[in-house]
Amino acid sequence: MSSPPPWPLEPDPETLERWTVAAAELLRHELPALAFGRADGVTGPRAWADAAALSPPIAEAPLAGGLDGALAALTESARLALNTGGPGYFAYVPGGGLYSAALGALLGDAFNRFTGLAAAAPGFARLEADVLRWLARELGFGAESRGLFTTGGSLANFGAVVSARHHHLGDDGDYRGATLYTSSQAHRCVGKAARLAGIPTAGWREVPTDPALRLDPGRLDDLLRADRAAGRRPFMVVASAGTTNTGTIDPLEAIADVCAAHDVWFHVDAAYGGFFVLCDAGRERLAGVSRADSIAVDPHKGMFLPYGLGALLVRDGQRLRAAHQETAAYLQDLEAEDPLAVPSPSDLGPELSRGFRGLRLWLPLMLHGAGPFRDAAAEKLALARRFREALRGLPIEVPVEPELSVVAFRLPRRAGEALAAWNERNRALLAAINRRQRVFLSSTTLPTQDGDAVTLRLCVLCFRSHAAHVDQCVTDLVAALDELAGALD
Amino acid sequence: MSSPPPWPLEPDPETLERWTVAAAELLRHELPALAFGRADGVTGPRAWADAAALSPPIAEAPLAGGLDGALAALTESARLALNTGGPGYFAYVPGGGLYSAALGALLGDAFNRFTGLAAAAPGFARLEADVLRWLARELGFGAESRGLFTTGGSLANFGAVVSARHHHLGDDGDYRGATLYTSSQAHRCVGKAARLAGIPTAGWREVPTDPALRLDPGRLDDLLRADRAAGRRPFMVVASAGTTNTGTIDPLEAIADVCAAHDVWFHVDAAYGGFFVLCDAGRERLAGVSRADSIAVDPHKGMFLPYGLGALLVRDGQRLRAAHQETAAYLQDLEAEDPLAVPSPSDLGPELSRGFRGLRLWLPLMLHGAGPFRDAAAEKLALARRFREALRGLPIEVPVEPELSVVAFRLPRRAGEALAAWNERNRALLAAINRRQRVFLSSTTLPTQDGDAVTLRLCVLCFRSHAAHVDQCVTDLVAALDELAGALD
């Protein structure tokens, strides 16, 4: 056959290397500045205007300046964004950004094998299956479990809903009365997953929580009983192992019992919290997760990867397969033919062609080993505890004691204070902390007796966040309290 | 705040650069060998055994050899796979593998901004929106259209089914009688998308095709009329713009008319064929695609990207949004607030967090310009025509004249020959061609009067495939015919 380039669209090997080295040089200089710069990043109207101004047209010819021009545009664009991977970014659920995973993305794309069907790429399929098997073991699942890498928690949760729907309700298109149970603290992607899967909006039941904002298993039992008696079709319960609001873990063992009693699918959305099983303290708190029928976890959260990697694990792997495998022609699985074969992602999920997603987790595990991930999980729990302890000396209340790495806190309500005024004070506190641009916190609302209360939250999950950053947050909180003392008192 | 590393999990800047340079060196040397080596690659039992042998355990400590060890394992694993991006790979739909896209994957992961909500990363959101707008214009959609980058055609088609379902059937969970129309030549991901979305299996209607294997608009009209009269609920027609089997384009204009008359959603699965609109000949053949309600295209096919990028475009963007946006709280869209803002992917698709997917297409467009993509699209059409012409002098029949870059062909049936014997001869021909390992073809079955006939197919879509590779295929076909002459005659 003919030899390599020069051909249009294919750089010759020297150009390929020059491009990559240029990217490496940029990243070497810019990544620290981007990651360790101001904690919030530039957003809002100014960012939109700047983005429009620097957006190069898509033209017939290459961009002026070639790679250098593109890298400059990208670097400027990256500044117009929340600094989601910085050490002072304690908002929402912080993004990871392990560079070893980025290198995996480069290599996976460059090798570009077809990993939709394991038989088309046995080598890569095996590496991906190795990681999934490791993950299943860490979560307490056995050899009959099967897993799938998705792009994140939303599609992992969607796969769980589809599997549960298929198993309990079949595929006849009649989902009237189909009912799914979760708490008000569940991530909003759960409702979206149900909707995409055709579950009627009227079938989303919000199970009441206890004062610690945990789904109440007794109330769940009541609801299931009443709904079944009324002729509805309960089929799935979604518990949270680490809510976004407060990091709360629903009582998994008790919920498992209720699900077993009512024969409904027990899914655990552990997208945020699941990887705390990697350390002893976390594994203890997550006891019961292995009793789930399915679990969603997000390596791009708890394993600090860049955005774009979730995973769904199903205890009885055949149920995942039954919901996703298409035709009878495929029922003669390669697994049966070769004892060394591994499952095909296309039989276990929605995609046929797909990128070599698992490499983004495999490479970090190879380059760092699993040990540092365990240490980091333990460190994050300790950092949240450190922050919570520091609050004890301050005029701050903690409405829910932290279980994982989220600490929700707020100014206490004054006697007779209107809810709106209280919320206003907490919003002012948040703004005063963030204005310093050394840490960036977000807020949420938590239920109280007379309405939703604005509550600040710190979520420490970035691998770059260490004790100094949490201490900085305390310092800035104290300064903000002082600054607002006049206005607040 | 504290300064960069050394921290566990974060390489210091020197290590970061050293890793990247090592990857670049490997790719410089290995990519040509992998891309231009044997056309098929190593698969089957030997590959499974080799994969198991080289699969490193996931240990607590880093892999021995560090990055070098991991790169060695990856390179060996990559050989245990179909060579999907090689110039002689004419099987299925060839994979792309533009290196500029791989570089985009590296940079997107390294910058790691949150691109689920445009407001969180206005700069990157704008670059992604630019590419989608360009794409929509090429396909003939207007300013009111909206698009979404997915991981491939499967999820793009899924998004179309969900949008159509929401628009025509609502979200009450009652999809009894819901009916979707497509031909036997549709990609199998269409049925899967329907199933995931809760459309009953009994509601998948196979519309008969004409002798050229195109969906027959008259028969579609008949079916829609009869189903509606019988109380069924037709809601969607899926046409193919480039079938996988033969590259056939369904009659889009006529189907658009039927869909308009019956008020059903008109979706075009152009995952394989859509990007031929980039050249004049292709745009002419795809006339009518802009009348669709939605279009799925795969940049990892027609724009030669590595696996992992599809796109869904919806003519009336509000319909896409209505099906995917979650809560009333989000209805006050940022678009309305800032004229420079762009849509959020999380409002238009299933994912909330996600990687910066569009960068994998933006960077190639910047580094190469759009021109070479147009040239490449025209070249692929010409190459298929070249192959088809070369067949005229051979004892080969072409059951369907090629419209795009697929050529389906086979040995003619002998008088009185049993179907099984005929199929056996064609399988032998395929094996004899592929055995030479210079080109790799796949086969399919096409309907004939007395059953499905094994038919070979060449699909030329790799950006590395040029005239010499197609000519090599002809040479090997001729040699295979000679070789089998004894057995075949």
Overall description:
Two copies of one chain form a homodimer. Chain A is α/β, with parallel strands linked by helices and 489 residues long. Chain A folds into three domains: 13-81, no CATH class; 106-368, 3-Layer(aba) Sandwich (Aspartate Aminotransferase, domain 2); 371-488, Aspartate Aminotransferase, domain 1 (Alpha-Beta Complex), CATH 3.90.1150. The first copy, chain A, is built from 19 helices and ten strands. Chain A has helices at 13-36, 45-54, 66-79, 99-111, 122-138, 153-169, 188-196, 217-229, 252-262, 280-285, 299-302, 317-324, 334-337, 345-348, 359-368, 371-391, 419-434, 467-483, 485-488; strands at residues 146-150, 178-183, 204-207, 233-240, 265-270, 294-297, 310-314, 406-409, 442-448, 451-459. In chain A, the strands form two sheets. A seven-stranded mixed sheet of chain A has the order 1-7-6-5-4-2-3, with helices on both faces. In chain A, helix 10 (280-285) links the parallel strand 5 and strand 6 (294-297). In chain A, helix 6 (153-169) packs across helix 7. Residues 328-335 of chain A have low confidence and may be disordered. At the A-B interface, helix 1, helix 2, helix 3, helix 4 and helix 5 of A face helix 1, helix 2, helix 3, helix 4 and helix 5 of B.
Order of helices and strands of chain A: HHHHHEHEHEHEHEHEHEHHHHHEHEEHH
Give the largest interface.
Answer: A-B, 171 and 171 residues
Strand content of chain A: 5-15%
Query: What is the number of helical segments of chain A per DSSP (H or I, 4+ residues)?
Result: 19
What is the CATH domain class of the largest domain in chain A?
A: Alpha Beta
Second CATH tier, the architecture of the largest domain in chain A: 3-Layer(aba) Sandwich
User: In one word, what is the shape of chain A?
Assistant: globular
Q: Specify the oligomeric state.
A: homodimer
At CATH level 3, the topology of the largest domain in chain A is: Aspartate Aminotransferase, domain 2
The low-confidence runs of chain A, each spanning 5 or more residues with pLDDT under 50, are: 328-335
Tell me the count of domains of chain A.
3
**Overall number of strands of chain A:** 10
Biggest β-sheet description of chain A = 7 strands, mixed
Roughly how many Å apart are the termini of chain A? 81 Å
Q: Could you state the CATH homologous superfamily of the largest domain in chain A?
A: Type I PLP-dependent aspartate aminotransferase-like (Major domain)
For the biggest β-sheet of chain A, the strand order reads: 1-7-6-5-4-2-3
Q: Give the overall pLDDT of chain A as a whole number.
A: 94
Structural class of chain A: alpha/beta
What integer value in Å does the Rg of chain A equal?
Answer: 24 Å
| Helix proportion of chain A | 40-55%
